[in-house]
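Blinded run. Sample ID left blank on purpose so nobody reads anything into the name before looking at the predicted structure. Input follows.
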Amino acid sequence: MTDPAPTAPPIDGAALLDEVEAFHRRFNVFPSEAAFVAVTLWDAHAHLLDCFDSTPRIAFLSPEPGSGKTRALEIVETLVPQPMTAVNASAAALFRSVSSGNGKPTILFDEIDTVFGPKAGDNEELRGFLNAGHRRTGVTYRCIGDGGQQTVQAFPSYCAVAVAGLGSLPDTIMSRAVVIRMRRRARNEHVEPFRARIHEAEGHKLRDRLVTWAEHARGFVMGAWPDMPDGVSDRPADVWEPLLAIADAVGGHWPERARAACVTLVTASRANDKGSIGVRLLTDLRDHVMVGIDRLPTVAILDRLNALDDAPWADLQGKPLDNRRLSKMLAEYMTADNEPIASRNIKTGASVLKGYYAADLHDAWARYCPPPPESPLPPLPGTENTV
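Blinded prediction complete.
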């Protein structure tokens, strides 16, 4: 009777992720410790995609070229399963690749600004693919066949996606992404030169170990419901759930580091998120125009909005915000009594002017605006309420 073949000892997941993070640090300069943690967890989650209900996109964005975005994708490419590098790829090419039956690719989309930038148009088809593929049940429907023999076919779209580009992305993609705000390296920040012929093989060895680890970790990750940090809920919780599940599965210092990174990056995304133009209007009314005031005539509201620095109101498609557009924008939101917000009469001395009451805006402020500043500025002199 022969002895059974010895089984390989299980891989220490925490130590392996430490090595993956160290590999990134050799070639990437990320803006924070939180970014290194998030990217490392994202690399690992791509090997266990079928264990999750959703997959976060990871977005390397910067205001200027030469900020290390492409290099970040190059390092990620060596660590993830079936990397598919895409530059200006069509939605049709991507969803057919994902649904080909040859295993899910990890899509690495460089120069995404050429697709969604200000001169590129909306590219609704690609945006729809990226949005649908965020969830495991996501599919893209297309008509297949010729002429009157066409049938509707569902193409699975669920796959891991990393993107890199200048500027920003559509809100629907940003809300499904972990955003890494890349910067140019400072003179005192140094990295190793990346040489594909040498370093790809090193990355592939780490990738192969991630594959082995993932097979052992599958039972710990499947169906996991990681505890979220306080204040992280809704879409940010969906984004971070797979990454925190990975951190909990490997243990060590990763659960604590992952939750600290989650809070840091979610807070940063909220600070950078100005919301829609309507939410920006509501927020500016609350934080800058009607601070400590329970009502204000429309003419005064417009004067103050159009005078705000770093605000869009003085130049909306070449014209300042006016009474008609203000009324139209606010009417899209409801009061606490479920009536459209509308101007009402305000008595000022001997005259009556149309204006807006803070009481009519409170419900919309609570539902749509980010938390107010901790120390709101007092009202400007001379803006006391007049009944």
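Unblinding after everyone has recorded impressions. The radius of gyration is 25 Å.
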